[in-house]
Amino acid sequence: MNEKLSDLIEEYSQLVSPPEVWVKMNELVHDETASAQDFALVIELDPGLTANLLRVVNSAFYNFASPISTVSRAITIIGVNDLYSLATALTAARVFSQIPCHLTSPNTFWRHSIATAILARKLASHCSVIDSERLYVAGLLHDVGSLLLYSGMPELSSEVLMMSAGDEEVLYQAETDSIGFNHASAGAELLSTWNLPESLVAAIRYHHEPLNAGASALDAAIICIASHAVNHHHYSAFVDEPAEDLLGLDPRIWELTGLNEQVVDELMIDHEQDLELALSVMLPAGLRKESK
């Protein structure tokens, strides 16, 4: 690992270390002997996480016919894996929002991240990806490395942001050239400390270079397309001005996923409405107050 990146990860890993309840939950979800009840009992040790999970599953985000009042019931309906992904998304949004940052507003950052997450899940379902909920987590966290750079290296980050002029591909290369690593590798290395699945970490590491992601190429390509697509809209761009050209993506990325611009446009219908709903149920209360 690049020495500067190693130092940055060491500096921030304590600030954004996963809470104990999530660590226990992560152990259980990989334990073949654990029951759904074991999983529910661990989640319920964190009243805040429990309340937020129930808030999400009872929202129009899932649109179930009748209210769900317990974590056990939620697991029965949506399954352990999807609830684990949802709990991870809620936990990560809460934890990573603690990183101090002055180069972008938390509102802009999380709007882009959640918009990418929503579209990534839709794209994954369209591509018949198993456990497509994990693509929501990858989409949500794909740019968390940017928060590390903005906070830990503000001057260099400010320079590369100005150089990029709102083009994420230019930004990615400028970070690599000027800093020695980029936000994708920074985010992946930090998330590795959470012991997240390697497929998820790889999707984040290679979301600007999905063709280099090996077995995780499809996941990385979905995140790549989702991030590019939401950057076309003023309500979800990672900067104030939306990007211009989705056609700039490598044709091999489209070929890998079997997607095309028409499919993406169709899946983007009602996306702003979906985003506003997700912001209302996913973000910590302090950030929801900033929401547009």
Describe this structure in words.
By secondary structure, the chain is mainly α. It has two domains: 81 residues, no CATH class; 188 residues, Hypothetical protein af1432, CATH 1.10.3210.10. It has 18 helices and no strands. Helix 9 packs across helix 10. The longest helix has 21 residues. It is globular, with a radius of gyration of 18 Å.
What labels would you give this structure?
Hypothetical protein af1432, mainly alpha, 292 residues, single chain, 2 domains, 0% strand, globular
Task: Please write out the topology.
Layout: H1 3-13, H2 20-29, H3 36-43, H4 47-57, H5 71-78, H6 80-96, H7 106-126, H8 133-141, H9 144-152, H10 154-164, H11 168-179, H12 183-192, H13 198-205, H14 217-230, H15 251-257, H16 261-267, H17 271-282, H18 285-288
- Helix fraction, binned, reads 55-70%
The H/E string reads HHHHHHHHHHHHHHHHHH
CATH topology of the largest domain: Hypothetical protein af1432
The mean pLDDT is: 89
Given the helix and strand composition, which structural class is it?
mainly alpha
- Kindly estimate the percentage of residues that lie in beta strands according to DSSP: under 5%
Count of individual domains: 2
Biggest sheet character? none
CATH superfamily of the largest domain: Hypothetical protein af1432
Please give the count of helices. Answer: 18
Gyration radius (Cα, Å) is 18 Å
Tell me the CATH architecture of the largest domain.
Answer: Orthogonal Bundle
